[in-house]
Amino acid sequence: MSEVGKVRRASKKLPRLPAGIQSFDKIRENGYLYVDKTRYLVDLIDDGAAVYFLSRPRRFGKSLTVSTFDAMFSGRRELFGGLAAEEYMNRADYKPGPVILLDMSLADMSGGRDDFDGSIVDMLQASAERYGVEIGRESPARSFSALIRALHRAEGPVAILIDEYDRPMLEYVGEPEKAEEVRALLRSFYLQIKGNDRFLRFVFMTGVTKFSRMGVFSALNNLTDISSDDRYAAMLGYTEEELLLNFGGHVRAAAEALGQSEEAFIDAMRSYYDGFSFDGRTRLYNPFSTLSLFREGEFKNYWYDTATPSYLAEYVRRHDLEAEQFRGLVVHEDFTSYADIDQSPPESWLFQAGYLTIREKRGGRITLDYPNMEAREATSELFLRCKSMPAASELNGQGEGLPKE
Predict the structure, then answer these.
(1) Does 20 map to a domain?
(2) Fewer C-beta neighbours within 10 Å, C or N terminus of the chain?
(3) Structural domain count, the chain
């Protein structure tokens, strides 16, 4: 039997691995292994801020986090037994309420304005049907406002969860006129959050990039960005402590099948998949690659193999970049704070996409580097591929899509 086969056979006796599963309900209802992050979600709710924003790379758990919030606000108490959020769900003053869940990666970018608007309104209609309210079909902004008010009248204060907020704009990197048109549409759409603030209970938004946020969310003066907040640095991804606590059986099985000691196997895991940091202190394993390793039994570039985001490939194509220029690069701490997507430096793109990480923060300066072997090899491969890639305008919309979480 091959080494891969041995790992898979041993893994069948262990808790099921949720590789690629983004639904909290599915994980909990079907007995998949779940690394409990719910204490961070309770902390955010208890903290009392009105609107939260979190930026993280693809395949890092954003969609699962949104799904978990959905279950919390919807009153799915049965899913939280034994988790940190169980206490929150059983508080005397806890009340379930309506949730508007929007996955902006599902917005139809293939056609014109009507298709785009129609796809967003369809998502809003799905939320209306979930609670048996009617909102009619108007513009996305008007339908959004109507849905918030209708749900509040019928069910009480509304929670809004928006995943991949920046996906529609990122489709047009390198095409500034189209990108600005979409940004203006989304600005008027997201503005409804501020206009309906008194009807809202909680708002949580995720995305890959932060520079789009500055233009799109400019009217949301109550926005709290937790992307670099030390308190939530480990909210997504696995710390080594979490890895050993939750995957100990999988580590032992994989190490034995590969003929390695546990210590040697963990050292290899650190080299390949650890090292992501969003605060300069907390180190995290890539969750998708970690789960894929335990499932497949091989050390390889799982994260990069899921496809290159089209927005990043287009950016790299238009710049002459070399992998070594980012090793130990020192930048100012606000290096991701660019409102203009096309004017942002390459390190901003690479960091937010997950190819670079923060090695150190000191005195307003940040030292960047590659988090691990997988990211370093992925970056070199990305640069080589994109040097010969045609422009987005030449692809007629047929380039690689931006993968979901």
Answers:
(1) no
(2) N
(3) 3
